[in-house]
Amino acid sequence: MNKKELKQLIETEYSNIAGICILKNGEQVYEYCGNNSSHNSHVHIYSCTKSIISILVGIAVDHGSIKSIDQPILSFFPDYQVKRGEHTIQEITVKDMLTMTVPYKYKSAPYTKYFSSADWVKTALDLAGGKGTIGEFRYAPLIGPDILSGILRKAAGITVLEFAQKYLFSPLKIDVKKNIIFTSKEDQMAWYHQDYSNGWVSDRLGNNTAAWGLELSAREMAEIGQLCLNEGIWNGRRIVSPEWIRESTSVHAHWEEAGLDYGYLWWIHDNGFMAVGDCGNIIYINRKRKMVTAINSLYNIHAKDRIPLITDALEPLFDL
Fold first, then answer.
1. Dihedral over alpha carbons 250, 47, 221, 196 (to 10 degrees)
2. Helical residues (DSSP H) of the chain, grouped into ranges
3. pTM for the whole thing?
4. Alpha-carbon span 244 to 231, nearest angstrom
5. How many angstroms from the chain centroid is the CA of residue 101?
6. CB 179 within 8 A of CB 199
7. Are 264 and 99 in contact (CB under 8 A)?
8. Smallest Cα–Cα separation from 171: which of 233, 79, 231, 263?
9. Could you report the per-residue pLDDT of 164-223, keeping only the tens digit for each?
10. Contact between 244 and 230 (Cβ < 8 Å)
C-alpha cells in the first residue's frame, strides 16, 4: 500500500477520522487531516481521557500528594457519609479504581441521575460498592471513574484541569483552554455532535470528568503516547516517573468477556499498550516498533475499529 491508497482507504472506510499522527523514534513520520480539520483541531477523545487521568494520578503519586494507591478512596473524602450497612465502599482503594475492579450498585448506568446532579464525584461515590466483589473486573465507561477526579482535586488542592495544565499539558505545549459545563441536555447533545472545540467537560462544581470529556488534537494525543513510550521523559524533562509508567502499563486485571488485559486505565496489547475511546479515538503505543499512532475522530457511534488500520496499514507503511 502507498500513501495515495492509504488516503483512499481512510476516506472510504474510516470517513469520520479528523486526524492521524504517527511518531517513529520520537519523530513525526505521518500526519493526516480530514473532515476540514487542521493539525491543531481538538476533538472529544471519549475514553482516551481515562489514560490521561492515569498519568495525572502518577504525577500526584510522584509529588507525594497521593501517598499510596493502596489508600482507601474514602480517606480523601472524610466528610462523606457512608450509608448504614454499607461496608464495601470503605474497602475500595485508589488502585481498585485504576484497575476497573470496583463493584457498582447499578446494572444499567443511571445516566439521567448522573448528568442531572451538580456533583458528579458524589454521585459516583453513592453508586460505588454495594454487594459486588472488589477485585473482579467491571469496566465503567462513564459513571464511577470521576471518583479519581475528586481524589486528584482533593490531593492537589486545585482542579484536575489546573493540575494537568501545570504538570502535564504545559510541558508538552498541549493547549486545553477551559472547562466545558452543560446547561441542559440539549446543550450536551449539541456538543457531542459538533466537530471541533477545545476544553474539558466538568460538572457545575468544577469537577472534570475522568472517563470522557477531554478534547485533544491527534498530534497532542501522539505526544502523550510518546511521553509514555519514553517512560515519562519529554525533551529531557521528567514529567512522570518511569516506575509509574511501567507499573501503569503492566497487566493488573483481565476482562474475561472481551479477552482483554488492563493496566491502570490503559489497555494492554501484545506489543505495548493503548488508550481507546468511542467513535474511533485511539492512542496506540507499540514498544517493539518504537511507534506511536494517534487517531482522533468525529462523532460516529458505529465507527470502524481502528486497530486493524494501525497494525495492517499504518505501522507497516511508516515503520521506516
1. 180
2. 3-13, 48-63, 88-91, 94-98, 111-116, 120-127, 146-156, 160-164, 170-172, 185-193, 218-229, 242-248, 307-308, 315-318
3. 0.97
4. 8
5. 17
6. yes
7. yes
8. 233
9. 999 999 999 999 999 999 999 999 999 999 999 999 999 999 999 999 999 999 999 999
10. no
Measured at the alpha carbon of residue 26, what is the angle toward residues 21 and 29, in degrees to the nearest 5? 45
- Determine the Cα–Cα distance for residues 106 and 81; give it in Å rounded to an integer: 19
- Helix or strand or coil: residue 84? coil
Sheet containing 27-33, strands listed edge to edge, beginning at the edge strand earlier in sequence: 27-33, 17-24, 291-297, 281-286, 272-277, 267-269, 260-262, 253-255
**Nearest alpha-carbon partner for 252 in 131, 90, 136, 88:** 136
* C-alpha pair distances (Å), 208 with each of 31, 147, 310: 30, 10, 30
Contact 114, 80 (CB under 8 A): no
Q: Which amino acid is at 39?
A: H
Interatomic CA distance for residues 110 and 182, integer angstroms: 18
Helices (H) and strands (E) in the chain, counts: 14, 14
Share of the chain above pLDDT 90, in %: 96
Q: How far apart are CA 77 and CA 81, in angstroms?
A: 9
Residue the block writes with cell 473532515: 35
H/E run at residue 23: strand 17-24
In the numeric block, the cell 524533562 is attached to 237
